## 1
Amino acid sequence: MNNRITMTLNADNLILQALREDITGEDITTNSVMPFPKLGEVQLICKQQGIAAGLGVFERVFKLLDNTVKIEFFCSDGDSVSPGQLMAVLTGDIRTLLSGERVALNYLQRMSGIATYTHSIAKLLEGSGTKLLDTRKTTPNMRIFEKYAVKVGGGYNHRYNLSDGILLKDNHIGAAGSITKAVKMAREYAPFVRKIEVETETLEMVREAVEAGADIIMLDNMSPEMMKEALKIIDGKAETECSGNVTLENVERLKDLGVDYISCGALTHSAPVLDISLKNLHTL
């Protein structure tokens, strides 16, 4: 999130929405104890082992409230952080530091948690040649932040949204009437530069997807044994992706299958937040 153009075009409005949600009129608590501007300093402290992600978003929250706030970071996105580690020092109007605290930490804790969980799974897949992908199972209005955190953690992004790629799932196939018809219709409608991915649940569906000319075949909720058979059928005629309730606890069983991609919704819908706090606020 260091690209200022990307931040301004895509993230600023979402961050402002989060701030408006938290401050609909005024910060009554802060205004009651700090009625006038006062320069202060506060420390950003890590309380749990993990991977930092979202420091630029954290900073942007305060900058949108008050551009005079200064933040000195002692780590970067992608760095490993440990309990007790000083991650940053913030200096500015105490009222801004207090009012922006929760929203800024919500982003940082959430994004760092996703990066940490992604890193744990990606590490288990090292050396396999299989790439770890996220999904569209993201928190509403948080997708840009959550998918960025996946990349920081060592994962890769699947399609960003419905306009970004073609994935024919079971209900699309049902609407078209068959995999063959769905692939044909997608090929005729979509721009020629788009790859067509088909979700399959049985070996019969895999055979039909191969014959229909799918570019990517997803093996959904199959056992490792069934996936091995599916890979023999595909035999390099399409890229392969396996999916279905993949977690940190069970991903290793998929490591040696030889699929090109493993997609994991848990990266964004089940990653716990990383415990990070703003502490030791004092006036200057």
Note: The mean pLDDT is 95.
## 2
Amino acid sequence: MEISRNKYLDMLKLRLHNGFVKVITGIRRCGKSYLLNNIFYNYLLSTNVDKEHIIRFAFDSAEDLLKIDEDLTALKKSNLKVNPKKFVEYISTQIRDGKMYYLLLDEVQNLDCFETILNGYLRKTNLDIYVTGSNSKFLSHDILTEFEGRGDEIHILPLSFSEFYATKGDDKEYALDEYMVYGGLPAVAQMKDDEQKANYLQTQIENVYLKDIVARYNLKNDKNIGEVLDIVASGMSTLISPAKLANTFKSIKNASISPSTIDNYLDYMQEAFIIKKVDRYDVKGRHYIASPYKVYFEDVGLRNARLNFRQIENTHIMENVIYNELRYRGFNVDVGIVESRGQSESGKVERKQLEVDFVANKGSKRYYIQSAFDIPNDDKKEQQIQSFKKINDSFKKIIVVGRSIKPRHDENGYLMIGIKDFLLDPNSLEY
């Protein structure tokens, strides 16, 4: 069954013939190659592009490498890159006229001097270039440098819940529970057996994602960074800082690791798209607070697998799912704080920092969003909306709850909506 990734296909359509190298990035196994070589390829065919004018080449494919007479044994044995001269000569044989050609290159980082080759191809007016790259050697920050400002990034997330649910047709409640446990990697979404899903996720996080980081940054091994990842996973969606994590590491592992090393590890995880560090934004003061910050996972299934599925806390996981949904919809997302002054029982003036789970911005739009898995009574609701009441602007304020409710506005004008409606309706923020 083909999983629809219409959002990303639309992003590629908008970038047709724009004179840039279109670079598809994302965590491993999120569907980059399938988007390029199947979904986008079939779209081009549907627009009457001739097959001979679509050149597909995967640098991790034995079949494709043999087309350019590469020695597969030598490549593997010596960890060599693909010979650029052989590749360029092959491409020149495929371009036979002056019509537009579409170059779809998978795992392009395995081609030696790929930056020089692709920058050269940009000078050809009849080449439109699309590439994917591996996280171990081709990360998001590379895009700005490798293509001299002519790289256009399309970042892909694992399946959103709406994409995931389209593959199921199950009860929404059951599907959401599965999604919050096993996440949205496309391969997992199509597996039927829970044990198979768990084993796949644990293998990926241990043998692929962490090893990518070790290879990229020449670390001695993945032991320390893996243990830091465990601590971050356990404290997902809570405020953390490198210093705090160093103290936790010492108390749990009875070993020392410096805050600067931990900070580097977190940056490596973010660059590999495993996690996302989210700074706090002072809504009234209109400035960012760099530390402490929150960490969310690109895929909650990988987070759960890292903890052997022992900490399935719906409150924190739902918050992470909402964060990923907002990013999927194209928002820039911060954690908000609102300074508040009040009197203590002794009459002293106290300063408090009230939290807004998410401040979501896109263009001129802004939304303040609270994630509340359960609001059993008025006191709990009041706790959730305290920060809203201190914000004096007119942007929309939304509370997402874990149960199914009919979307409605309360007496303050705040929208209350159930998590399933929020995730499945692309216009849910506009109720």
Note: The CA atoms of residues 107 and 134 lie 6 Å apart.
